[in-house]
Design a protein that fits this description.
By secondary structure, this protein is an alpha+beta fold. It folds into two domains: 2-67, no CATH class; 87-234, no CATH class. Helix content is 40%, strand content 10%. Strands 3-4-5 form a three-stranded mixed beta sheet, with helices on both faces. Helix 4 (158-167) packs antiparallel against helix 5 (176-190). It is globular. This is Sporulation protein. Residues 208-236 have a biased composition (Basic and acidic residues). Residues 189-236 are annotated as: Disordered. It comes from Rossellomorea pakistanensis.
Length: 236
């Protein structure tokens, strides 16, 4: 009788131990980052199209992550590296998607910390056709980048080299912001930008209206009237 009880106890402890190990492994998978992140699978690099270690196509999987506050009183969740955008891959995606559009033969894209500059070549000369193409290219970019980005487009061939030159500067180069701003002004002067993003934003995604007038991060809103005149001319 005692031997039977002892045997059952040993088996029970073995099962519990195995359960703890499995649970620990599962917990390690779920909370492997900082103890607060519950992930269905490991986080992967943004815009990475390679297959994962299990041979599953990431493009066919849903993305799901759940966060909880730390159970330790007063402990804050680190926001370091919370969102990192691979600008090179985003620029690649925008250019690749843009040249797949009708009447867009070449496309160069520059992605900064808050702006997207797109220079593309098209054989269209008609103003209304240029407007529609500009709208399509801009919407393509907006579908890829985070919502705070502003998007500027141009079909002026002379400005493609300007956009390329900006790419070699980098954010840490003196006067980089000024050079970017000057290029954007040239783009707005020479090319249609498409329709307003919505009722509260101009074609480039900048806020419009008295409530948001002259915000620091919308330095190109002075061009809104100029673009509106262009839209009126094209009937849009």
């Amino acid at each position: 009788m005692n031997k039977s009880i002892l045997t059952i106890s040993v088996i029970g402890l073995t099962i519990i131990g195995a359960g703890c190990n499995n649970n620990g492994a599962a917990t390690g998978e779920l909370f492997h980052d900082n103890g607060n992140s519950i992930n269905v699978s490991d986080r992967e690099e943004l815009y990475n199209n390679e297959n994962d270690t299990n041979g599953q196509d990431r493009t066919k999987r849903f993305g799901y992550v759940r966060h909880q506050k730390s159970p330790i009183m007063g402990e804050n969740i680190s926001t370091e590296n919370m969102y990192t955008l691979d600008r090179e891959k985003v620029a690649d995606a925008i250019s690749k998607m843009s040249v797949s559009l009708p009447n867009v033969d070449d496309c160069a894209t520059l992605v900064t910390g808050e702006e997207v500059l797109i220079s593309y070549k098209t054989g269209e000369k008609d103003e209304k056709a240029r407007f529609e193409i500009a709208d399509q290219v801009k919407k393509t970019a907006l579908s890829v980048v985070p919502r705070w980005y502003h998007v500027y487009v141009t079909d002026d061939p002379a400005l493609m080299r300007d956009v390329e030159n900006l790419a070699s500067m980098g954010a840490n180069v003196d006067n980089a912001s000024t050079a970017i701003g000057d290029t954007i002004d040239l783009m707005l002067d020479s090319s249609p930008q498409g329709r307003n993003v919505d009722a509260g934003e101009n074609p480039n995604g900048e806020m419009i209206g008295d409530k948001y007038e002259l915000q620091d991060d919308d330095v190109h809103r002075t061009n809104h009237d100029r673009q509106q005149k262009r839209n009126d001319t094209t009937g849009n």
